[in-house]
Structure formats: C-alpha cells, structure tokens
Amino acid sequence: MITREEAFELLKKYNKEDFHIQHAQTVEGTLRYFAKKLGHDEEYWGLVGLLHDIDFEMYPEEHCIKAPELLKEGGVEDDMIRSIVSHAYGMGVDVKPEHIMEKVLFATDELTGLIGACALMRPSKSVQDMELKSVKKKFKQPSFAAGCSRDVIKQGAEMLGWELDELIQETILAMRTCCD
C-alpha cells in the first residue's frame, strides 16, 4: 500500500492550490475519524480521503475519470482507486459506493465543504464551536455554499441508513479532530 507521505506527494503533484490541498486533508481526517468510530483501517480510509480529488484541480471536467490513470501511475492499488472513483457516482461516474467507507466518503465530501463554509461565517472561523443547528440553517439556503450539493449529502445519508442530522453532527465532530 502507498504510504501517507507518497500519497501526499502524489496529491501535490496534481494540486497546487492551498484550498484543494486543505480540502483533501480535511476529508482525510474526516475519514480517519469515521474509520476509528466504525472499527475500520484508519490508514487506508485516510489515504482514500487524501487522494479522493486528485484530478479535480487540473482536470475538473474529467473528475474521477482521469483519476485512475494518475493514481495508477502513482502506485495506488486498484481497490483504493475504485473507492476513490466511487465518490463521484451519479456525477459522470457509474461506480456505485458499496463499502461503508465509500458511502462515508460520498456523504461527507460535499458536507465537509458546507461545514467549512459555515465555519468561516462564525466569529471564531472554526468548527470547534460549530453547532448542528448552524449547519442545518445554512443547509436550507441553496445559495449558501452553492457548490456543495445538498442532494448528494442527502443521498449519502440515505446510502448509510443514517438520519441527516446524525451525518451532519458526526461530520462536525470528525472535522474537529483535524481542523481548526
């Protein structure tokens, strides 16, 4: 399996903007949190989170279509590539999330962006004092963080069999472990 250091160098090869690198690290930390909570391999889940948007900055029109090629060249194994690609299911990709980790990635990728945008609106600019009701309020405003698909977040909660509030609350807690 690729090491965390190798994965981070691979990420930086195709992502130069701080925003994209920070998002990758946020999703990495979020998946590590869920792996620990659910009794799975934190390292594996974290690497999937770190690499999930490897092609997004340079190839936004080919997101998760170009990724397998870039990941293979970087020495990433096929099962990990499949998991990474599955987070774009229904958005130009036919690889359906099946494993619990793939479903968590699908559900939390957009949600971490929404929660991060909510945090920036707070006086503290932090998730550390974020409350569920704050995110729910902004969730209902389609113009707020409009790039974060509420439909994908809801679909992810459904895939997991979780209530939307549970998904949001747990993702806030996850982000507290890896974000200021």
Describe the structure.
The chain is mainly alpha-helical. It has a single domain (4-176), classed as Orthogonal Bundle (Hypothetical protein af1432). It contains nine helices and no strands. Helix 2 (18-38) runs antiparallel to helix 3 and helix 6 packs across helix 8. It is globular, with a radius of gyration of 15 Å. It starts with a helix and ends with a helix.
Q: Which helices and strands appear, and what pairs or packs with what?
A:
Layout: H1 4-14, H2 18-38, H3 42-51, H4 67-73, H5 78-86, H6 100-121, H7 132-139, H8 150-160, H9 164-176
CATH class: Mainly Alpha
Helicity range: 55-70%
Beta-strand percentage range: under 5%
Supply the helix-strand structural class. mainly alpha
Here the CATH topology equals Hypothetical protein af1432
For the record, the count of structural domains works out to 1
> How many beta-strand segments?
0
Bulk shape: globular
Largest sheet: none
* Radius of gyration, taken over Cα atoms and rounded to an integer in Å: 15 Å
Q: Would you identify the regions where 5 or more consecutive residues have pLDDT less than 50?
A: none
Q: How would you state the average pLDDT, rounded?
A: 96
Protein traits:
62% helix, Hypothetical protein af1432, single chain, mainly alpha, 0% strand, 180 residues, globular
Q: Would you summarize the structure shown here?
A:
By secondary structure, the protein is mostly helical. It has nine helices and no strands. It is globular.
